[in-house]
Amino acid sequence: VLCFVICSFCWFSIGIDNYGLAQTEDASPEEKIDSIRLVSQKIQELVKSQPVSTFVLDELKQKVREKHKQEMKQFNYKRNQKLSAIFERFQKIRYQPVIYSGKHYDYTSYNQYFQAAQSR
After folding, report:
1. Model pTM?
2. CA-CA distance, 36 to 107, in Å (whole number)?
3. Max alpha carbon distance in the chain (Å)?
4. Separation CA 9–CA 3 (nearest Å)
5. Cys bridge to 106: 4, 94, 97, 114, which one at CB 3.0-4.6 A?
6. Which of 81 and 96 is assigned the larger pLDDT?
7. How many angstroms separate the first and last alpha carbons of the chain?
8. What number of CA atoms fall less than 13 Å from residue 44's CA on the CB side?
């Protein structure tokens, strides 16, 4: 986007500078060639200053990447909160429904205590 603005500005300024030479009907071919040379010289100057514009583009890309990283962090934070809430609900209610005998609660932590005691 920035390069487009720079190029359009340069073409506009080049067109204004050389408008008198290029548009006159009585201009000789040499004057037209000179105007073309001036245009090419200005374009070459722009090409020489191109690394500055690429540096600006790199800065813009880095800013966009940082913005996307922040958005992803916010999204992941919200998602992790939802998942942790679901996980906590499952931790609080640990049972396995059985059709014929009701609900059997999970006593794994209670059983782990006895297994640890037996291993000592």
Report:
1. 0.33
2. 88
3. 110
4. 10
5. 94
6. 81
7. 71
8. 6
pLDDT, one tens digit per residue, over 16-30 is: 444 444 455 556 667
- Alpha-carbon span 86 to 35, nearest angstrom: 73
**DSSP string of the chain, one letter each residue:** -HHHHHHHHHHHHHHHHTHHHHH-TT--HHHHHHHHHHHHHHHHHHHHTHHHHHHHHHHHHHHHHHHHHHHHHHHHHHHHHHHHHHHHHHHHS-EEEETTTEEEE--HHHHHHHHHHHH-
Task: Please name every residue paired with 103 in a beta bridge, in sequence order, or none if there are none.
Answer: 97
More confident residue, 17 or 84: 84
Can you read off the two tokens belonging to residue 65? 């990447």
Find how far residue 4's CA is from the centre of its chain.
Answer: 20
